[in-house]
Specification:
Blueprint: H1 3-26, E1 76-80, E2 86-88, E3 104-117, E4 120-124, E5 130-136, E6 150-159, H2 164-168, H3 173-182, E7 184-189, E8 193-195
């Protein structure tokens, strides 16, 4: 080993230490400005596409939507797309949801708009931006859900049929028409539903 090579190797340790110290000093809190980190696409919750699982898997929830914006008053309703990324479901509620297939939907602090029966209720922002949620009770008693409450859940979109409105307890004509237009409703297991 030459003398120059050994001098370079000896100087690497202190140089590396000096770099770390400079980086740490630059990251300190000097109280001059406080900023909140904005989420990037990499912070969006994901699920594995084509995982072959038949029931929804828990998805991490947090204080931001997939777009990085704070949720509006109606909470947030996210749907996983084919590559596992989450997106806001609210803009899609006015039309057909059948293209989403049996996608997983995560609702966080979503407002209950009205009840369709002891096992089904509408969630959303208003009468035109709402989704029917059906609870799979699994032998348990139905939870006490009332209009105006907030619910958090993980569920799976389910394709509706021509008699879904009747089967699910939807009695009003506007609700039946919306369910038919959307072509799907949300199945949520009682264990994946919390009411506040």
């Amino acid at each position: 080993m030459t003398e120059a090579t050994s001098a370079i190797r000896r100087s690497r340790g202190p140089a590396l230490l000096a770099s770390v110290v400079l980086l740490a000093a630059g990251c300190g809190d000097n109280n001059e400005s406080k900023t909140t980190a904005q989420p990037t696409d990499d912070t969006t919750p994901r699920i594995a596409p084509n995982s072959g699982q038949t029931s929804p898997q828990p998805t991490p929830t947090g204080p931001i939507t997939a777009t990085g914006k704070k949720p509006r008053g109606g909470g947030r309703l996210l749907v996983s797309n084919r590559n596992g990324r989450m997106r806001d479901l609210f803009p899609l509620l006015g039309g057909s949801l059948t293209a989403l297939g049996t996608a997983q939907v995560t609702g966080s602090s979503v407002r209950v708009l009205s009840l369709a029966g002891s096992e089904a209720f509408w969630v959303g922002r208003n009468r035109s931006l709402r989704l029917l949620v059906h609870i799979r009770l699994k032998g348990q008693s139905p939870p006490k859900v009332r209009a105006g409450q907030k619910v958090t859940f993980i569920g799976q979109l389910t394709t509706g049929s021509s008699d879904s409105a009747t089967t699910l307890g939807v009695k009003d004509a506007a609700g039946a028409a919306l369910l038919a237009r959307q072509g799907a409703y949300l199945e949520v297991s009682i264990g994946d539903l919390s009411v506040s």
